[in-house]
Write a structure and sequence with these properties.
202 residues, alpha+beta, Thrombin, subunit H, Methane Monooxygenase Hydroxylase, Chain G, domain 1, 2 domains, 5-stranded antiparallel sheet, 5 strands, 56% helix, elongated
Length: 202
């Protein structure tokens, strides 16, 4: 994948940047091309070798057509829940390095869910903050909406996700008859309740 001067790109774990220049530099006797990125969040400059752009996960921002899919994923209730700290941290770190916003969303959901039941370690808290920043900043850029408005939408989607996860966990832990009642449509529950009341009056 190649990029042009002026293009907005996503650099994994760093966020949104703009290609300011493409230039050649000689380092240790070797000459190669570099993308000079100006990172939007802190106005710093990053050099990425042109030949290694794919290797580091440099990519264009998601398209407008992906916004609905991303918010659906944010609120779908599907959360990876690793019990082992080392395994969880490694998996999440690997996802953060892929550059995929979908992988970052997975990390955001997983650590948000975990933070509701226990205190996160310093490293996981920092990863959670970074994941949320990456999701909000990219969606804000794509949607052309203020950061605060996008963060509010992300928070509401996460609330739906945690509620769906909690309901699923309750169904899994309940006896079969209770789980069926919890999962039943509202109309079925109402009819069942009415039948119970009629039987009590008989």
């Amino acid at each position: 994948m190649t990029f042009q001067v002026g293009e907005k790109v996503i650099y994994p774990n760093h966020g949104l940047g703009v290609v300011e220049r493409i230039e050649e530099k000689t380092i240790q006797g070797m000459t190669c091309g570099f993308y000079m990125l100006r990172m939007v969040s802190n106005d710093t400059t990053v050099l990425v070798p042109v030949e290694n752009a794919d290797g580091v996960g440099l990519r264009r921002a998601v398209g407008c057509e992906e916004i609905t899919r991303l918010f659906t994923k944010l609120g779908d209730g599907k959360i990876d829940n690793h019990q082992n700290w080392k395994g969880r941290f490694k998996d999440n770190s690997d996802k953060m390095r892929t550059g995929s916003l979908y992988d970052v969303v997975d990390v955001l959901k997983s650590l948000t869910f975990l933070s509701k039941s226990k205190s996160l370690s310093f490293r996981e808290k920092r990863m959670l903050d970074r994941a949320k920043f990456l999701v909000v900043s990219e969606l804000s850029e794509v949607c052309q909406e203020p950061t605060a408005a996008v963060e509010d939408k992300v928070d509401r989607a996460l609330e739906r996700c945690l509620a769906a996860k909690t309901r699923a966990a309750a169904r899994a832990a309940a006896p079969p008859a209770v789980a069926a009642a919890v999962a039943a449509p509202k109309s079925v529950k109402t009819a069942t309740a009415s039948a119970v009341r009629r039987a009590a009056r008989a």
